[in-house]
Structure formats: structure tokens, C-alpha cells
């Protein structure tokens, strides 16, 4: 029986663990101790920090694993690279993992390799010439921590008077002694899921994003496909291929953020793993295959075929609470036989405590629907959500 090490035991790793078990693979899950649902499904658990790559490597060597992977989080990507290098496993390298999780290294590689991206500056927190550093960059600006995932430590700045507060927020969300200031590109933002395999981008699926506006935008849902002209999609794929080569990514999923400016796609950033917020499910539904299975096969060094002739429009959305409290009631008036409803999942039950939504982990469930067109799928999502009521007091 093959052994697959999965880093993380959160809600976005659970489907990965379940799929591996369906494939007859022994799952070894590593995560810090906590109330994480993945522990209940793992064959074996180690309570360790997934960022401690030396410890994880030691466990991987002792267990004689055949592959290592995660999804939905950047935290463990460097560790995956370290283990892949040392054990000669399929997946991104240690160097690629470090580039993919340090936005400074990423931007430097983009600049060196001619990837189309926003202008930027590196700034140390001890710098006393912040205003001078920002000279030559057009407002609005983005102050960005280089070692976080999602939207933590990323602040939009409209004027110099906001510098001090922006620096304070970035500093609170990073372990580094420096951060990035970059131009805020005005344009049409969109994301994309992709996979690079044997040095070539196998597919690129642009998707639209529903965003919760807090201190920064936090994704709460996505739809696929994001309808763009074929020429723009081709340009995005070219830029993504160049970005992957610049970052030295290979044999891994990619979670990409783009912005369309004057008909050209600019790369904002690329992660060396699949996205969260139902994005793996959206890829699976769109192409008509199990994307978790493909991710696992690639991690095990097996031959993987990403070809598909299907194109199924779909929408995924998080279920959220507007306040802290305890779930008192869950009401779902949707028809269980409705074929357009792919999945309604609750992460919590009546009696559980939940948080008001501010960041991704505050989700309390999700809904995934499909339609003949994106417009139909969006309309269906609205209808389904209108029939779900979660009472929190």
C-alpha cells in the first residue's frame, strides 16, 4: 500500500484525505494539535508544525512515504519542497517552495524573467525613508507582507498619511523584517487554477471571485469559467508559464491571481498549490474529473492525464455568520433531488460556536451549484442561498 503524507488537517485538506483513502492509499496527516476535522479521517496522525521541515522530513523518512502534498494553504509548501528534494519525490522543489511563499522573492524572479507584473519596492521595517522608497510609484499603493497566504497583511494605501497604520498592520502579520510596496494596478482582477506537469502548464481555468470587503478583500466564493476572450486567456497562459518557470515550479497545482489592464494580463502572484474556497471542487465539476485524484496521482509520481472535453459552468460559495455566537438552528428548504445542487456542506452543527466572518477559516460551510451557463449557475446559487437559514445567537 502506498503512503501519502498530507500536510494540514483543516477543512480544505479533508477532501484530499478522503480521496486518498478511496484510492487505497495510506494517509499520514501532519498538523499542530487542535480541533481539526482531518484528524478523524487520517490513518495516522503526527502532531507537528507543518512549517518544521526538518521534523517533517524525519517523519517522512521513517514512514518511507511515496508522496507528500497539501491543498488550500501556503503554510506547508516550503516543507513539501524540502521533503520532495531529499526523498526524490514528485512535486515542487525546496527552492520553488521558498519562492512561492515569499512574495519578495517571487516579484524579483518575475522582474528578472520578464513576467508582466506590477512595479514594486522592498522596504525594511527599520527604514526611516519610507516616503522616499515609495517615490516613483503611482497611487494607490499596496503594502504587502511577503510570507502570508490569502489576504493577511495586505493593505491598500491611498496617501502618505496612511503609511504608519499600514506598516503596523503588515508588521503584525509577518515574520520577516521587510515587506513590499507595489503599485495597485487598476483593472479587472480574476483568478485561475492551473497545473504544471513535466514543465508544461496542462490547463488554465480562469475563475471569477466573490469578495468580502474587510480590511482587505477576502474571497468568499468563485465561479467558473470567468468569461474572457480567447486571446486574453492565451496571454494569461503564456504569462503563467513564464511565471512558473521563473519560480521553478513543476509537478504541482497552481493558484494564480491576475489583473487585466488595457487588454494585457499582469501576474499578481502564484501559489504552488491548489486554491481554497471550493476551487478544487470547481475544477473537478468544470472538467468532469476528480481534481483531488489528479493532485494525488501527480504527488505519487504517477502519469496523469488532465485532458477533458467537458466544460460545466459552476459556482461555489461559503456559508458565513454575521456575528459571533452559537448555532441555534439550521434550516434548508432546498429540494434534495435538485440536480443543479452539487453539494451543501455544513462545517458546524447546532450547538457549535462560530465566529463572525472576517477571514477564510471563519467559514461555516459551503454550497456548490452548476448550470448550463454561468448566469444560470449564479441565479441558482442565489435561489439556493435564499432557502438556507442558519440562526446564530
Summarize the structure.
The protein has 393 residues and is of the alpha+beta class. It has helices spanning 14-22, 53-63, 77-87, 94-100, 103-113, 130-133, 163-171, 230-247, 279-287, 291-299, 374-386, and strands at residues 3-7, 26-31, 44-47, 67-69, 120-124, 141-144, 154-157, 178-183, 188-197, 200-213, 217-224, 252-261, 264-271, 314-319, 325-332, 341-346, 353-354, 365-370, 388-392.
Any guess at the CATH architecture of the largest domain? 2-Layer Sandwich
Largest sheet: 8 strands, antiparallel
**How large a portion of the residues is in β-strands, by DSSP E?**
25-35%
Overall structural domain count:
4
Structural class: alpha+beta
> Which stretches are poorly predicted, pLDDT < 50 over at least 5 residues?
none
What do these coordinates show?
By secondary structure, this protein is an alpha+beta fold. The protein has eleven helices and 19 strands. An eight-stranded antiparallel sheet has the order 13-12-9-10-11-14-18-16, with helices on both faces. A hairpin with a 2-residue loop joins β9 and β10. α2 (53-63) packs across α3, α3 (77-87) packs antiparallel against α4 (94-100) and α5 (103-113) crosses α8. The radius of gyration is 21 Å and the shape is globular. The N and C termini lie far apart (47 Å). The mean pLDDT is 95.
Amino acid at each position: 500500500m502506498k503512503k501519502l503524507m498530507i500536510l494540514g488537517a483543516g477543512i480544505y485538506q479533508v477532501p484530499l484525505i478522503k480521496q486518498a483513502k478511496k484510492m487505497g492509499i495510506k494517509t499520514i496527516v501532519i498538523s499542530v494539535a487542535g480541533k481539526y476535522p482531518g484528524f478523524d479521517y487520517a490513518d495516522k496522525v503526527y502532531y507537528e508544525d507543518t512549517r518544521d521541515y526538518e521534523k517533517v522530513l524525519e517523519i517522512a523518512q521513517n514512514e518511507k512515504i511515496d508522496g507528500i502534498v497539501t491543498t488550500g494553504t501556503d503554510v506547508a509548501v516550503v516543507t513539501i519542497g524540502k521533503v520532495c528534494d531529499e526523498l526524490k519525490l514528485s512535486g515542487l522543489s525546496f527552492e520553488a517552495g521558498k519562492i512561492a511563499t515569499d512574495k519578495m522573492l517571487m516579484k524579483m524572479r518575475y522582474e528578472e524573467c520578464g513576467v508582466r507584473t506590477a512595479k514594486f519596492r522592498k522596504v525594511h521595517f527599520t527604514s526611516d525613508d519610507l516616503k522616499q522608497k515609495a517615490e516613483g510609484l503611482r497611487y494607490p499603493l499596496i503594502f504587502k507582507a511577503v510570507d502570508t497566504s490569502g489576504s493577511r497583511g495586505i493593505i491598500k494605501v491611498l496617501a502618505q498619511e496612511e503609511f504608519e497604520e499600514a506598516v503596523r498592520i503588515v508588521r503584525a502579520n509577518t515574520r520577516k523584517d521587510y515587506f513590499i510596496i507595489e503599485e495597485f494596478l487598476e483593472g479587472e482582477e480574476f483568478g485561475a487554477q492551473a497545473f504544471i506537469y513535466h514543465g508544461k502548464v496542462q490547463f488554465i481555468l480562469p475563475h471569477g471571485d466573490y469578495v468580502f470587503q474587510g480590511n482587505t478583500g477576502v474571497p468568499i466564493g468563485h465561479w467558473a469559467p470567468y468569461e474572457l476572450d480567447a486571446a486574453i486567456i492565451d496571454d494569461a497562459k503564456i504569462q503563467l508559464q513564464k511565471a512558473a518557470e521563473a519560480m521553478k515550479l513543476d509537478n504541482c497545482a497552481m493558484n494564480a491571481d491576475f489583473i487585466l489592464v488595457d487588454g494585457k494580463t499582469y501576474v499578481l502572484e502564484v501559489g504552488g498549490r491548489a486554491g481554497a474556497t471550493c476551487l478544487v471542487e470547481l475544477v473537478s465539476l468544470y472538467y468532469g474529473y476528480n481534481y483531488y485524484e489528479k493532485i494525488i496521482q501527480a504527488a505519487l509520481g504517477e502519469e496523469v492525464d488532465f485532458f477533458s472535453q467537458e466544460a460545466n459552468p459552476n459556482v461555489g460559495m461559503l456559508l458565513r455568520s454575521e456575528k459571533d455566537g452559537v448555532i441555534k438552528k439550521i434550516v434548508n428548504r432546498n429540494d434534495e433531488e435538485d440536480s443543479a445542487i452539487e453539494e451543501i456542506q455544513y462545517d458546524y452543527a447546532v450547538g457549535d460556536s462560530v465566529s463572525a466572518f472576517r477571514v477564510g477559516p471563519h467559514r461555516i460551510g459551503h454550497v456548490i451549484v452548476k448550470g448550463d451557463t454561468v448566469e444560470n449557475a449564479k441565479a441558482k446559487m442565489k435561489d439556493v442561498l435564499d432557502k438556507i437559514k442558519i440562526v446564530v445567537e
